[in-house]
TrEMBL record:
Transmembrane segments: 12-36, 48-70, 77-95, 101-126, 138-158, 164-185, 220-242, 254-277, 284-305, 311-332, 344-363, 375-394
Organism in which the protein naturally occurs: Modicisalibacter luteus
Stated name of the protein: MFS transporter
Highest rank taxon of the organism: Bacteria
Organism ancestry: Bacteria, Pseudomonadati, Pseudomonadota, Gammaproteobacteria, Oceanospirillales
Pfam families per UniProt: MFS_1 (PF07690)
Entries under Gene3D superfamilies matching the protein: MFS general substrate transporter like domains
CDD domains on file: MFS_YcxA_like
UniProt entry keywords in alphabetical sequence: Membrane, Transmembrane, Transmembrane helix
Matching SUPFAM superfamilies: MFS general substrate transporter (SSF103473)
PROSITE patterns, per database record: MFS, PROKAR_LIPOPROTEIN
Residue stretches making up the Major facilitator superfamily (MFS) profile domain: 5-398
Amino acid sequence: MSSARLPAATWWLILSGCTILMLSFGFRSSFGLFVQPLDEANGWGRDVIGLALAIQNLAWGVIAVIAGGLADRFGSVRVILAGTLLYALGLWLTAGVSDVWVLNAGAGLLVGAGVAGTAFGIVLPAMARVVDESRRQMVLGIGTAAGSMGQFLLAPVAQGLIDWLGWSGALNAMALMSLSMALLAMPLAASDRPAAPAGQVVSPEAFRDTLRLARGHASYWLLTAGFFVCGFHLAFITVHMPPFLMDAGFDPEVAAWSISLIGLFNVAGAFLAGVVSGKVSKRLVLIGIYGGRAVAIALFMLLPLSLTTVLVFSCVMGFLWLATVPPTTGLVATMFGTRYMATLYGVVFLSHQLGSFTGVWLGGWLYETTGTYNVVWWAGVALSLVTMALHWPIRETPVTGIRPTAVA
């Protein structure tokens, strides 16, 4: 397949998967724009709203592990359909929220579960399974870039809906739009066939062997620990960047365009990361990304805050935003293959979401406690340096000892 053109059905599957990722990430990335409206409508502090969005990230991570296992066993389409319904329900509940427990259940648990069923951990493995190894990193880069394109396109749309319909009406509109992911899931059924040669079935022992080897694989756990920091950065900035800018006197539209620019520049960053990590060491690509983040955040804190620094920082961070995903997913596939990739990547992604929970919650709590976000910004710099060190000893070699198939 490496020298031939991809079949039309494969491109249709990739296009459908990319559109699902655009919608899933676009809606989720817009939640920072609702922090101030929710606070003003209900008198909640940012620690309360931040906790709900931290629950969203944690639920996404925990349920992603379960969703990955279900997708490996029953297929990605069923998981995406369930995720779509939960996503829409969570947005709808948040639209009429007046109680904290409803906020935690809607914007927190249900939206988090919905994203788990419609995002990278489910869609990227489905896309990776329909191409050969020579094109895998490119396809992972395309899918990751699609998520960022959704952030670029839908953050301004969400702000426009807030201006037009109010925050509650905007969430209702987003709930209706999210239901389209159910139709887009249908072409992905072609990737749900077992990843075993004809005449063979996947051995139950192979799954147990893979998990056993993953438990004792140092490089896998170093990768998992490093992804915590990626989640810390992304979730903190997504949720707290808009109120941070509004506190500094910028208009809400500037905050929306900051999030949007991050998504736009990550289209290029994620795609380039996918291409480059298919040609050079994925470990070194990740070290470079985290080093770049440390420099970008430090300069953003040290330079005077202005429209120029906001826009430049958004562009630079956008280029590095989800660029970690292609080399990270690629390392999982390199180590263990693609058969149980959704499950194994789900474990790595759980660490990412634990970092997301920490970044969102800590940002809100420290803001209410100290009146500033500065401590969390500088913590992001320090964690970047730690992560660079964690990635250095990672070995990019396949794990031996897995029994992938058994003769039927």
